[in-house]
Amino acid sequence: MQVPTNQKDATQQDATSAMSLGKAILTAIAGLLMGIANLIPGVSGGTMILAVGLYEEFIESVAEVSSLRFSRRRICFLILIGGFAGAAIVSLSGVILSLLLMRSSMMFALFIGLTLGGAPLLLRMIGKASVRSVGGAVVGVALMVGIVVIKDHAAMPRSMAMDVVSGVVGSTTMVLPGISGSYMLLILDQYDRVVGAVADLKDRDFSALRIIVPVGIGAVIGIVGLSNLLKFLLKRHKEATLGILLGMLLGSVVGLWPFDREPPRKALERCSESQLIAYADGVGIEGIDALTDRDAKTDYIIEQWPDRKATDRTTSNMAIAGIMFVIGFVCTLLLGNLDRKKAEVGSAESSNKG
């Protein structure tokens, strides 16, 4: 019996869908970058996937698996992405909190560079500028600026229901290049609660699961829903959609400057009293020595933060921040070129065989 052509093509495609070692390594790197980015306010996990040239495959994979269409390649791809992202989140949550506290200007400059380094790749995906892509970019920038404007006016509750909402919002924006899931958690006033819970779980405080489980449920709902929506939009309105994504990527850095923002409370709570005193002295907050309770010291730093010295704006710190920005930009730019170079090599090999 003759096999229909479309069925034959599908069978051949599934048989040849095994992931190469190079692609597996690139996917694992993308997962690590996505996990790290999801810990950082202002940095998009979707941008990291986009930067290494795997964004459309990520969206397609989630959409197909959520539609109960499975293939070895899609399953392996998502396991690598999810596994390495999860490992990065769990292992680095405490470290990231500490670095954001102690070296905020360097870290935020690095993350701005990492984010903007994905812009050239997105521009290549757009190709020739059109009214739709430019208009979409303007809408994307305006959306991000609007988020920054309303950020300081959001007063959100902290409850299990809000944890589910945080998971939905954080995950959907995580999928979008240019919008950071953790940045949205900051807007919802849930960032230190969620990241702190992950850090506590790493320290075997299993009470943190009452926060992590609802957030995880919301995250699954959000990722599945948005991935299917994006798959549709990229097929039907690709230029406008890519333009909006580019605008959101460019606009996402607006909320990160200036760098001397209020420190994460959860990071302060994880410090010893001597570390809190040293930190307060370093940022120009005086009078903390008179307080004997660690929680009181934490509250005092938060209360006095607006009146401290702007230590992150010194010439030396800005010079270091500039270097970190360049490093981040170049790293993402190079990662974004990996997939293109691989495609060029493959095309050249195919031409030679022909």
Textual characterization of the structure:
This protein has 354 residues and is mainly α. The protein has two domains: 22-255, no CATH class; 275-332, no CATH class. It is 74% helix and 0% strand. It contains 17 helices and no strands. It has helices at residues 5-15, 21-37, 45-51, 55-66, 72-102, 104-116, 119-126, 131-151, 160-175, 181-187, 191-202, 209-236, 238-251, 265-269, 273-282, 294-304, 315-353. Helix 2 (21-37) runs parallel beside helix 5. Mean pLDDT is 77; it is low at 1-16 and 342-351.
Topology:
Elements: H1 5-15, H2 21-37, H3 45-51, H4 55-66, H5 72-102, H6 104-116, H7 119-126, H8 131-151, H9 160-175, H10 181-187, H11 191-202, H12 209-236, H13 238-251, H14 265-269, H15 273-282, H16 294-304, H17 315-353
Helix pairs in contact: 2-3, 2-5, 4-5, 4-12, 5-6, 5-11, 6-17, 7-13, 8-13, 9-10, 9-12, 11-12, 12-13, 15-16
Quick gist of this model?
This protein has 354 residues and is mainly alpha-helical.
What does the overall shape look like? globular
**Low-confidence spans:** 1-16, 342-351
The oligomeric status of these chains comes to: single chain
Tell me what portion of residues adopts beta-strand conformation. under 5%
| Largest beta-sheet characterization | none
Q: Helix count? A: 17
Order of helices and strands: HHHHHHHHHHHHHHHHH
Roughly what is the average pLDDT, rounded to an integer? 77
- What is the radius of gyration computed over CA atoms, rounded to a whole number of angstroms? 22 Å
**Cα distance spanning the termini:** 32 Å
The portion of residues assigned to helices is: over 70%
Q: Got a strand count? A: 0
Output the structural class: mainly alpha
Number of domains: 2
